[in-house]
Amino acid sequence: MSVELEKVIRTIFEEHLSESVSVQEEDVCSGVTRLLNKRRQIKDVDNEMKIQRQEFEIKRESLRQRREQMKIKEENLKDSLLKFDKFLKENDAKRARGVKKAGSERAVLRERERELEQLHTHIAALQVKKEKLQVRVERFRVYSDFLHTVLKTATKFEDVGQLVARFETLMSTREQLLRRQSEMERQRENDSLELRRYISEQNSILLQYNNTLSQLQTELDNVLSHTLAQESSWNHIQAAAVKETHLLSQIKVVTRNLYHMTGGVTGGDQGVNVDDTVEQLEQIRLFIEDRAEIFTYLRSDRSSSSSRLSDRE
């Protein structure tokens, strides 16, 4: 603010100074006159500056007051804006609740109208059903008259209700008997089906057993045939074994006799076992070899003696 004041004072002083210079150019006065004019001008300038300063102070005070008023108004405006914003929010919330409530009420109203239409439709259907029932009542009235006529002739029943109850009991019993008969028929069919299935399974099992028995009989025949062949072969083997055993016995007897003839001894510590035919044959072989050597030696000796005799002659 002081800088602006100096600018204003400088502007005013320059204006007065320019005016004084122009006056001096027009009127050539003496130095005293110029000095007086200068002093008068300076005094006027001071007065004007005082007036300007006072006006400036007044304006500055007015501006300060206006600024304070503006601050107060701004604060009030902020409060008003906050209150107005709060009011708008509350109003929006109330409006939303009102809209929601109105929507709910409209939905309830539509539901009530739909229920009312359904009730009207149901009432109309009931009315139609009532008319049909009335027609049936009129059509079945003859049966009611018949029941009353029967009730007059029957002594077991006191009213039509007992007669109808008896009839319903008989019908219920009849239905139960029919259901039981149907169940028994189904059970009989199931049992028959189960029996046929069991017979079929048993026939299949019996057929398998017959096939198995036939196979076993064939195998038994083959085994018997093979057994007969084996028995025949065994008999032949036994006959051959008997012959060979008899021959072996004869060989053993002959071998033992030959062994005894060669001077062999059987039994005891020095003798050969009676049943050890191999050892006996070995001893016989040794005996024969010894005798063959002796015979060969004697024959060669006889030949040499004959040759010596012939030489002497």
TrEMBL record:
The keyword Ribonucleoprotein does not apply. GO terms for cellular component: cytoskeleton. Residues 35-152 form the DUF4200 domain. Pfam families: DUF4200. PANTHER family: COILED-COIL DOMAIN-CONTAINING PROTEIN 42 LIKE-2-LIKE (PTHR21683:SF2), COILED-COIL DOMAIN-CONTAINING PROTEIN 42 LIKE-2-LIKE-RELATED (PTHR21683). This is DUF4200 domain-containing protein. Residues 35-136 form a coiled coil. The keyword Coiled coil applies. It comes from the Eukaryota. Keywords: Coiled coil. InterPro entries: CFAP_domain-containing, DUF4200.
